[in-house]
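Anyone up for a design puzzle?
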């Protein structure tokens, strides 16, 4: 299956022509950008600090750069951020952003808070190609992959929202983790996701360590071990069934990468141990995958593998054909896994009232008219960039 490469966003414009975004550039690319402006490459280190450590969005704030350099930067570049079209906060403090990119496409990002920390759920594509039957995102067509800048930018928007700049140097940060399990399949956009996460993990910038990042895949077998070798982040597998027949019925990707191949790739993931386990995500669907026999089959499937289970009560969405398993059924299922020596956490649904819970993400702007969508996004970009236009 062919998957679209990221479409570069249209650059913002100034009186001097198009301005290229800097968010999403790695160190070498920032150095090259400085050389293009006639500057020494070491200026890239200063830019990196301002963009990724301090979260600056305006070149005027970069006070250790000369006025001439700041003027050149403003003439040729923008820092670059997705623009918030809509922000919603749930009664349980979950926060969701509908973000617009420079070409007018949109994706959703969610912050899931705990008592003193929380995870930002990042999207990797606009839409999704996988059509998992229980997932709202799967009902939205795949539009394109997101670029590294658009992926990093989602976390930066969340930090903007919570005022967590400069990068906290202690454990006070609220935005403590990233989970790449929003809209899209990240391993179908591996290059851009990997580039974005390497930027995020750099300890002199955003500085989120690999143990604080979890990449979730529906089972793109060829890229799983590569992700472990190149990134070393935590691995989560959207499993949802212990046998091929059930899994294929709810997750068509299983036809291409059946369980035997998927489990072999998971077992080969570098660095797994009792202190670093793979997480199996398992949505509880009434009468589909929630019987004691299914639980026992899971135990057999994962025997000897350092792993834990995250049992997810199904989050209904408009038009869904499934129901959530009964609480007693979920409890009995979890107990079977627990009795076999597994950690089996039942996830507390979060953000249901704003359609931000697991499996519910979808750019609900699709239900708006095309004119209203464009008007909202245009207004947001004008407010942010002082008159820049979107280019559809």
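Challenge accepted. My sequence:
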């Amino acid at each position: 299956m062919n998957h679209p490469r990221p479409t570069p966003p249209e650059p913002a414009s100034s009186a001097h022509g198009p301005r290229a975004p800097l968010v999403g550039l790695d160190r070498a690319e920032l150095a090259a950008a400085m050389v293009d402006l006639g500057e020494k490459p070491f200026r890239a280190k200063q830019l990196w600090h301002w963009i990724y450590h301090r979260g600056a969005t305006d070149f005027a704030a970069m006070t250790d750069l000369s006025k001439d350099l700041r003027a050149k930067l403003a003439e040729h570049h923008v820092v670059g951020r997705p623009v918030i079209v809509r922000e919603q906060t749930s009664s349980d403090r979950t926060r969701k952003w509908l973000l617009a990119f420079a070409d007018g496409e949109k994706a959703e990002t969610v912050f899931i808070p705990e008592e003193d920390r929380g995870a930002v759920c990042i999207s990797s594509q606009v839409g999704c190609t996988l059509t998992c039957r229980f997932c709202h995102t799967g009902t939205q067509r795949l539009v394109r992959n997101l670029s590294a800048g658009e992926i990093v930018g989602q976390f930066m928007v969340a930090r903007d929202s919570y005022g967590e700049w400069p990068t906290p140097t202690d454990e006070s940060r609220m935005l403590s983790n990233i989970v790449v399990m929003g809209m899209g399949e990240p391993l179908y956009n591996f290059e851009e996701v990997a580039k974005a996460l390497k930027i995020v993990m750099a300890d002199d910038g955003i500085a989120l360590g690999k143990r604080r990042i979890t990449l979730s895949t529906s089972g793109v077998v060829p890229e799983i071990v590569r992700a472990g070798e190149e990134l070393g982040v935590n691995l989560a597998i959207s499993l949802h069934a212990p046998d091929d027949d059930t899994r294929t019925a709810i997750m068509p990707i299983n036809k291409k990468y059946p369980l035997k191949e998927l489990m072999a790739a998971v077992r080969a993931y570098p660095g797994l141990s009792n202190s670093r386990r793979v997480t199996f995500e398992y949505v509880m669907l009434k009468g589909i995958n929630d019987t004691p026999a299914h639980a026992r089959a899971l135990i057999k499937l994962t025997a000897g593998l350092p792993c834990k289970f995250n049992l997810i009560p199904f989050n209904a969405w408009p038009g869904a054909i499934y129901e959530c398993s009964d609480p007693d059924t979920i409890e009995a299922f979890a107990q079977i896994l627990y009795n076999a020596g597994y950690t089996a956490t039942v996830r507390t649904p979060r953000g249901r009232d704003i359609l931000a819970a697991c499996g519910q993400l979808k750019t609900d702007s699709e239900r708006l008219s095309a004119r209203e969508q464009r008007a909202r996004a245009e207004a947001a970009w004008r407010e942010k960039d002082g008159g820049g236009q979107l280019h559809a």
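A detail worth pointing out: The longest strand covers residues 106-113.
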